[in-house]
């Protein structure tokens, strides 16, 4: 697979930062739809200033928002991506960002973290390339649920190519909890997000013997997951299954006789949220079954999840006993691969250089054409600080090109 190496255009090794290669704008042909995607945690200015001690090694001049935003805008222009997924977008910077991106031909959707947080996630897409068919914002804070009591959020969009609006591509981005010790919360947040992605991406079923096998539109899931590749939640995303009941709580490490920690048990989230062990909404599964396994456009009304901006009143009286909850396992049907599947790649510094930012894609219906290579651990060692003169964030951007076979 071809890679484009950003190390070739670094500044001096003392100032080592990463500056994106400007890839050409992709175009669709008659048989496939080609598009590019950028995912980037851009470091909200209020969070930078609130945690200023983390940036003591940075030149104070490069920490100024006026300086950083010009670098960011230059990067955006050079990537020239068809879809942009941002994390840590400060709400008070939205007017500036929307205006600049609108001038470049983008439209977008933003979701602020719940309660009094300053930042959130955003997805921008090219107006001349996509039509927005559906937008969903996801809140992980569910009242009365201890493992879902944080204000992180996500976005799920259903986009159609303008030259073939019968087709759909699902794009989602999120920023998962940072706390390194609370992997139980990370798992619950991902489990909840996957249920919403499954709902939006579902397009019907095919009959295989006596079974109805769900079919899904192509999916890309991006974001700052605050997970390393050797963690249980990452394995769940890639492998589609995690047996968590005997793992340590709250780290999801394997148990041993000396740990002294209790295990996770069989219930990750309460049954009252209506999300099955297969990361699906039970009432929506019931709705599909009652409608010949077709997706109903108003199916969001049947979600039992709390959302601060809406009320759901179309709940079914009860869910079928065939749906399983609280089994000590979680699954999903979405078959993700990771663009950045090299354990030695680095996207940020968390006490050491590591990778926590990802682009996941469904390998059954999307082909990864090319991607921008991230540096490895050894290549990152000379970097003294981020942000720096050429990198506006404390995370590196991720960039990839995909192809989708149109029927």
Q: How do the strands of the widest beta sheet line up side by side?
A: 1-18-19-2-3-5-4
Mean pLDDT comes to 89
Helix content: 10-25%
The main β sheet shows up as: 7 strands, mixed
Assign the structural class, choosing from mainly alpha, mainly beta, alpha/beta, alpha+beta, or little secondary structure.
Answer: alpha+beta
CA-based shape? globular
Count of separate DSSP helical elements = 7
**What amount of the residues lies in strands?**
25-35%
Radius of gyration: 21 Å
The total strand number stands at: 19
Distance between the termini: 24 Å
Question: Which regions contain 5 or more consecutive residues with pLDDT less than 50?
Answer: 1-28
SSE succession: EEHHEHEEEEEHEEEHEHEEEEEEHE
Describe the structure.
By secondary structure, this protein is an alpha+beta fold. It is built from 7 helices and 19 strands. The N terminus is likely disordered.
Offer a few descriptive terms.
7 helices; globular; alpha+beta; seven-stranded mixed β-sheet; six-stranded mixed β-sheet; 407 residues
Blueprint of the fold:
Layout: E1 3-5, E2 32-41, H1 45-50, H2 65-79, E3 83-90, H3 94-103, E4 106-112, E5 119-126, E6 130-139, E7 153-161, E8 169-175, H4 183-201, E9 202-208, E10 211-216, E11 219-224, H5 232-239, E12 241-243, H6 282-290, E13 329-331, E14 336-338, E15 348-349, E16 353-354, E17 357-362, E18 367-373, H7 377-380, E19 398-405
Parallel strand pairs: 1-18, 2-3, 8-11
Antiparallel strand pairs: 2-19, 3-5, 4-5, 6-7, 7-8, 9-10, 11-17, 12-13, 14-17, 15-16, 18-19
């Amino acid at each position: 697979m071809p890679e484009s190496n950003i190390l070739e255009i670094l500044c001096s090794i003392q100032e080592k930062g990463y500056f994106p290669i400007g890839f050409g704008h992709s175009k669709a042909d008659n048989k496939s739809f080609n598009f590019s995607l950028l995912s980037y945690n851009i470091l909200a200015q209020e969070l930078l200033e609130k945690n200023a001690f983390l940036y003591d090694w940075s030149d104070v001049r490069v920490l100024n928002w006026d300086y950083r935003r010009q670098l960011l805008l230059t990067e955006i222009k050079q990537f020239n991506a068809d879809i942009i997924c941002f994390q840590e977008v400060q709400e008070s910077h939205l007017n500036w960002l929307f205006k600049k991106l609108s001038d470049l031909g983008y439209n977008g959707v933003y979701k602020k973290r719940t309660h009094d947080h300053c930042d959130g996630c955003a997805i921008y897409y090219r107006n001349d390339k996509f039509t927005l068919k559906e937008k969903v914002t996801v809140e992980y804070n569910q009242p009365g649920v201890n493992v879902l009591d944080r204000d992180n959020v996500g976005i799920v969009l259903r986009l159609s190519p303008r030259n073939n609006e019968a087709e759909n591509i699902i794009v989602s981005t999120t920023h998962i909890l940072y706390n390194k010790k609370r992997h139980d919360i990370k798992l619950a947040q991902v489990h909840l997000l996957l249920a919403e992605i499954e709902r939006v991406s579902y397009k019907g079923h095919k009959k295989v013997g006596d079974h109805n096998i769900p079919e899904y539109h192509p999916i890309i899931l991006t974001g700052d997951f605050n997970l390393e590749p050797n963690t249980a939640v990452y394995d769940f995303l890639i492998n589609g299954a995690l047996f968590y009941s005997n793992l340590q709580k709250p780290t999801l490490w394997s148990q041993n006789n000396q740990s002294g920690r209790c295990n996770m048990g069989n219930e990750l989230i309460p049954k009252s949220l209506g999300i099955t062990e297969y990361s699906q909404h039970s009432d929506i599964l019931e709705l599909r079954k009652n409608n010949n396994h077709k997706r109903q456009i108003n199916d969001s009304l049947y979600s039992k999840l709390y959302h601060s901006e809406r009320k759901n009143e179309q709940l079914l009286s009860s869910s079928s006993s065939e749906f399983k909850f609280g089994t000590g396992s979680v699954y999903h049907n979405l078959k993700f691969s990771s663009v950045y599947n090299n354990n030695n790649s680095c996207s940020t510094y968390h006490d050491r250089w590591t990778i926590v930012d990802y682009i996941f894609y469904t390998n059954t219906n999307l082909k990864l054409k090319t991607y921008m290579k991230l540096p490895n651990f050894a290549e990152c060692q000379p970097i003294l600080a981020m942000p720096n003169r050429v990198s506006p964030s404390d995370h590196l951007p991720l960039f990839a090109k995909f192809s989708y076979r149109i029927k």
